[in-house]
Amino acid sequence: VLSSSAKHALQSSFRLVKPIAETAADLFYGKLFELKPEYRVLFSSDMAAQKRKLMGMLAFIVRALDWPESSWRESTPAETDLFLVVLALGRRHTRLYKIPADSYEVVGKALLWTLDQGLGPAFTAEVRGAWAELYRLLCCTMRLGDGAEEENLPSLHEAVRGIHDNNAESIDCPKTETA
Amino acid sequence: MESGQTGKITTSGSLADFKLTEILQALALGRHCFQVNILTDDLTDVGNIVLKADRILAATGPGVTGKPAFRALCQRPDEGRFQIAQLEPPVIFDPLGRLQGLLLELLPPDEPTPSPVLTHQTAPASAPCSRPVSTPLPSSMLSGHPQAKAALSIAVVSPKGGVGKTTIALNLANALAASRRRVVLIDGSVNGDILAALGAQHRPCAGVAEVLAGRASLEESLLPTANPTLKLLAAFGPGVPVPEELDNIGADRWCDLITQAHARAEIVLIDTPAGLFGATRSILSAVSHVLGVLQAEPLSTRLSDRFSRVIESLPAPRRPALVGLVVNMLQADCDVSVEALRELAQREKPSLFQSFLPRTTAFLAAAHHGQPVRFDGEHAIAGLFDAIAAELSKRLKLPDELGRYRFLT
Which residues, in sequence order, are bridge partners of residue B407? Predict the structure, then answer.
């Protein structure tokens, strides 16, 4: 379970990432393709747009964690609910894009490495632990999405709208999707 | 509970692929109301749990409801199937509690305290915690990556031998465990000093060498101690140790071992070989923190800056934090020793722990009896270790609540 201090660590560290978003995205995909060169062909040639989508997704995730404890009884629209949005993302990854299950591990490695490089000393053990825990839960949610019924799943397009100027469909849109 | 299934979102899967506690934690990322139905493989209903955000609203199990049902369902074997359905939240509800708190209650109760000596290697059956409440990332994801630094792991090191490093590691682990923190103490020295200090060098059936070589599991290699929250991992099992097996362990393999140990403890403490290079350097590259030990004598004042220099020489992703320096073997009646302490205090003031350990025959007596000082009737010395443990906890910002918060997350 993500504790309040973990959420705070995620939010405060992501605030430091925002000003270097472009560099962070460069680092992430550079590392990802270094670890798995064969993934390069899965992505559109327009990597600039892809990188904006990545940062938009991260911004959505961090923002979706930010709600006051006192409002837990209140409902939220499906398109702003982190679990539902990531569930839908996982379903698309498996069923539509045929992304291999082992990609979660590689993407996680690239993400933590990127944060380490980008944040430097600010990437403390606590911050690393918070991101690793968040990523673990996101992976679990995406894997749960494999068995989800498609009807009424929220669109990431809606989720990311307003978070980023460039409306994104997925952080990992394959070439076939974006072509 | 007045609520209705909306039919909006459903998903299902096998509990062999997902632990129930993991599913609940994932659902708690969102804010909608869900019911998780637990079924047998032939789809017979076993029970269900309803949650909204991170609150458990209700649980129904075989013949029970409420918290007992939640416990029973979470502690079932990893078999059967689950279905998740989105619900309209009930109009009136009184939550059983927050998910994190309820998961904490699943932690095993403390084991009965045996006599104050190491019990035999054949460990007692584990307390009834059938599954971890938090699944770490795959260990392969940690390879070549300083992921182990996310876990709280402390290497006890010194720039030279004979400064009492093993004594401090053993007694500090004991003091941390006495404050109800769950600790695994790993003997990282090929000399096997920890077990020798306890007069139990013949007891381990396996240790670090066997676990990393795949000849034994960590679970079966951990030695129970008189303190139920402290477990020991010896350097090696019976027979003559093969130095290469321990000396050639790389940082990645230490990371894996620490991660495994951390799944069973809040704090992983590692006693290292003398010096800051060789095998110690691999351990330094794998841990999150370093605790330095210095003797209150002139040579220490000349070597005290080695900690920071060696740590800084490690690549940034592998660099641990220096949590502090403990001064040992202070001789209050010896001017040279007191002067050395004064000089250390001037040079390393921010790092020095406020409690200093004296050179005393109490350690000799405890070693003679094969016990930490706490069990040897040396309450004053044990109190110093308690103070160091408390200061360590403060420096690491560990939560006070029995240390369990960090254990869970």
Answer: none
Residue B401 structure tokens: 């609540």
- Which of A82, A129, A152 has the CB atom closest to B9's CB atom? A152
Of residues B103, B135, B150, nearest to A1 (C-beta): B103
**Of B268, B286, B284, B310, nearest to B144 (Cα)?**
B286
Min distance A169 CA to chain B CA atoms (Å): 20
Rounded average pLDDT over A136-164: 68
Q: How many residues can be counted in chain B?
A: 409
Strands B81-88 and B64-65 come out as: unpaired
**What is d(CA B195, CA B209) in angstroms, rounded to the nearest whole number?**
14
B100 reaches A (C-beta below 8 A): yes
Q: Which pLDDT belongs to residue A179? A: 24
CB pair distance less than 8 Å for A125 and B152 = yes
This complex has an ipTM of 0.85
User: What are the pLDDT digits (tens) for B32-75?
Assistant: 889 999 999 888 999 999 999 889 988 998 888 888 899 999 98
Alpha-carbon dihedral sign for residues A132, A90, A35, A12: negative
* DSSP SS3 for B49: strand
Outline where DSSP puts E strands in B120-222.
153-157, 183-187
Q: Under an 8 A CB cutoff, do A152 and B8 touch?
A: yes
CB contact under 8 A, A1 and B100: yes
Name the nearest CA neighbour of B180 among B408, B404, B406. B404
Under the banding of pLDDT at 50, 70 and 90, the label for residue A152 is low
User: A4-17 vs A103-119: helix axis angle to the nearest 10?
Assistant: 70
Q: In b/e form, how buried is each residue of B183-202, taking b as 16+ CB within 10 angstroms?
A: bbbbbbbbbbbbbbbbebbe
Structure-token pair, residue A108: 């996680």
Residue of B62, B340, B343, B323 whose CA lies nearest to B176? B323
Work out the minimum CA distance from A76 to partner chain B, whole angstroms.
7
What pLDDT digit, counting tens, does each position of A29-84 carry? 999 999 999 888 877 778 888 899 889 989 999 999 988 877 888 878 888 889 98
Q: Which of A70, A80, A144, A149 to mutate to test the interface with B (most CBs of B within 10 A)?
A: A144
Measured in whole angstroms, how far is the alpha carbon of residue B96 from the centre of its chain? 29
Query: What's the helix, strand, coil split of chain B in %, to 5?
Result: 35, 20, 45
Q: Which residues of A touch B31 (CB under 8 A)?
A: 67, 72, 74-76, 81, 83
The structure's pTM equals 0.49
For residue B151, the chain A residues in CB contact (below 8 A) are 129
User: Quick one: residue B279, left, alpha or beta (phi over 0 = left, psi -120 to 50 = alpha)?
Assistant: alpha
The one-letter code for the residue type at B347 is R
Q: From the list B26, B89, B409, which residue is nearest A6 (CB)? A: B409
Packing angle, helices A125-144 and B20-27, rounded to 10: 100
